[in-house]
Specification:
By secondary structure, the protein is α+β, with helices and mostly antiparallel strands. It has four helices and 20 strands.
C-alpha cells in the first residue's frame, strides 16, 4: 500500500514537470527575453555624392606595338636582351655576324679618303694657278705700258723699229702667259669639280655600305618592353622574319561602344575609370581622346576611345577590363551592400532605435525598415527612399537580426 501511494506521488510529479516544460516551449517570447544583446557595427549615414554612371567591358590596347624584323639575312652572333627587358628606341637588341659588308664599307671609306686627297690637290693647284695668273697680269700691265710708250716714241722718231718690235713682242708674250695661267685656273677648277663629284659618290657608297653594316645590329624601333623572343643565339634569320615584339605600354587605349542616345553627353576629355572586376575598385583614371563622328547603323552605338596612364605597370596590352563613364553627380545617401537584407523582391535595413526594457531601463534595438535602392556604386547602394542623413544603421551580423532585436553597438 505504501509502495502504491509512492508510485502515484512520483507519477504526479512527472506530470507536473511535463506540463511546465510544455508551457515553457509554447512561450517563445519569454524564452527570447533572456537572450543577450546582438553585437553589431553601427554606421551613421551622412550626405554623399551619388553619381550616374555606365559600365562597359573591353580590351586594353597598347599605343605602340611593333615587331622586330631584320632587313638582311644572317646568323645571330649576339643576343643583348631578354623577354621582359625594357629597351629604348635605337637600342641594339641583337647582332648578326659580319660578312662582306664590312670590307665593302672599308673600301668605300678608302674611296672617300682618296677623293678628299684629290680635291685637296686640285685646291692647291688652283691656288698656284691663281697666283701665277696674278703675277702674269702684273707683267701684262707692265708690258702694256712699255708697248704704249714705244709706240708713242716710234711715232715721234725717238726710237727705232727694233726697239718698238721688242716692246711689242714682250707684250704679246706676257699676254700668252696670262692666258696660260687662266687656262690653268680653269683646269684646276674642273679638277676640283670632278674631285667633289668623286667625293660625293664615295660618300654615297660609304653611306650605303654603312647601312648594310648597320643592318647587322637589330635596333629597337620604339621604346618599350620586349615580349617573347622567337629566336636564339646562333640561329640563321632571313629578311622580314619576326624575331621579337616590342610593346610600349606607358599608356593604353580602351575602345568603348556607347549607346547613340548618349551622344549629347559625350565630350573630349571626360573621365573614364578602370575597375577591378572583383572588388570594383578603381585601377586607373583616363580621359576620352576620340569620339567617332559616325553611329553604327546596326547597333546604334558610337565608338569612343579612352587613354589610361600605366606608370605602375599593372595594366597589360590585351587585358580585358571593366570601365565606367560618370555622366553626372548629385548629392544623396549611400549605404554599404552589407547592410541590405532582402525578403522576396523587397530590400530592408535595420535602423538603430531605443525602447523601454522590462525593468524600466532604455535599451538599444533595431527596427526593420524598407528602402528603395538605386544603382550600385562601388561597394555601396544608392538610397532613393527610406533613409536620410543622420540615421544609424546596422552593417554587420545582419542575418542574426530581427525587428526590435536588442543590440550591442560596437
Amino acid at each position: 500500500m505504501k509502495t502504491s501511494n509512492y508510485q502515484k506521488f512520483l507519477g504526479l510529479l512527472l506530470l507536473i514537470a511535463a506540463t511546465n516544460t510544455g508551457c515553457s516551449r509554447s512561450n517563445p517570447d519569454a524564452q527570447a527575453s533572456g537572450l543577450p544583446p546582438i553585437p553589431v557595427k553601427i554606421e551613421t549615414l551622412s550626405p554623399a555624392t551619388v553619381e550616374e554612371s555606365s559600365q562597359y567591358v573591353g580590351n586594353l590596347e597598347a599605343t605602340e606595338k611593333v615587331a622586330l624584323k631584320p632587313e638582311i639575312q644572317g646568323r645571330i652572333q649576339e643576343m643583348r636582351v631578354e623577354p621582359g627587358d625594357r629597351v629604348e628606341q635605337g637600342e641594339a637588341m641583337m647582332v648578326l655576324e659580319p660578312d662582306q659588308t664590312l670590307p665593302q664599307l672599308e673600301n668605300a671609306q678608302a674611296g672617300v679618303d682618296a677623293a678628299i686627297a684629290s680635291r685637296d690637290t686640285a685646291l692647291e693647284q688652283l691656288k698656284v694657278a691663281q697666283s701665277q695668273r696674278d703675277s702674269a697680269q702684273e707683267q701684262v700691265n707692265l708690258a702694256q705700258v712699255n708697248y704704249d710708250r714705244a709706240e708713242f716714241l716710234l711715232d715721234a722718231g725717238a726710237i727705232g723699229q727694233f726697239t718698238y718690235d721688242q716692246a711689242e713682242t714682250e707684250f704679246k708674250t706676257q699676254k700668252n702667259r696670262l692666258n696660260e695661267a687662266e687656262n690653268a685656273i680653269e683646269a684646276a677648277q674642273a679638277a676640283i669639280r670632278q674631285a667633289q663629284a668623286n667625293l660625293q659618290q664615295a660618300q654615297a657608297q660609304v653611306k650605303a655600305a654603312a647601312v648594310s653594316v648597320g643592318f647587322k645590329q637589330l635596333l629597337s624601333p620604339i621604346s618599350g618592353v620586349v615580349g617573347d623572343i622567337a629566336v636564339k643565339q646562333g640561329d640563321y634569320v632571313t629578311t622580314g622574319e619576326t624575331l621579337a615584339g616590342i610593346t610600349r605600354n606607358d599608356f593604353l587605349d580602351l575602345e568603348i561602344s556607347v549607346p547613340a542616345r548618349r551622344s549629347g553627353d559625350l565630350q573630349q576629355g571626360m573621365t573614364v575609370e578602370l575597375l577591378d572586376p572583383v572588388t570594383q575598385q578603381t585601377l586607373s583614371q583616363g580621359k576620352i581622346n576620340f569620339i567617332s563622328p559616325n553611329v553604327d547603323a546596326t547597333l546604334q552605338t558610337i565608338l569612343i576611345k579612352a587613354r589610361f596612364p600605366n606608370s605602375r605597370g599593372n595594366l597589360r596590352d590585351g587585358q580585358r577590363v571593366e570601365a565606367k563613364i560618370v555622366w553626372n553627380t548629385d548629392p544623396g545617401i549611400l549605404i554599404p551592400t552589407t547592410a541590405i537584407s532582402r525578403v522576396g523582391s523587397k530590400s530592408f535595413v535595420f535602423v538603430q532605435d531605443q525602447q523601454e526594457g522590462t525593468e524600466g531601463e532604455d535599451q538599444l534595438i533595431v527596427r526593420q525598415r524598407p528602402v528603395q535602392l538605386g544603382d550600385i556604386q562601388g561597394s555601396n547602394y544608392q538610397v532613393l527612399d527610406g533613409l536620410e542623413a543622420g540615421d544609424r544603421i546596422a552593417v554587420s551580423n545582419i542575418l542574426k537580426l530581427r525587428d526590435e532585436a536588442v543590440i550591442d553597438p560596437q
